[in-house]
Design goal:
The chain has 37 residues and is mostly helical. Helix content is 81%, strand content 0%. Keywords: Membrane, Transmembrane, Transmembrane helix.
Length: 37
């Protein structure tokens, strides 16, 4: 998946304004756990 810095920043701002930033944080943390463990 291709994500430029500007695009990822846009997604983060959209997620925060949409009130689903916590969902993305949980998903990213779970993905990191699966990768590192």
């Amino acid at each position: 998946m291709y994500l430029s810095a500007g695009h990822s920043g846009y997604l983060i701002s959209e997620a925060a304004s949409g009130g689903v930033s916590s969902y993305f944080l949980i998903a990213i943390s779970q993905l990191a756990i699966k990768i590192f463990l």
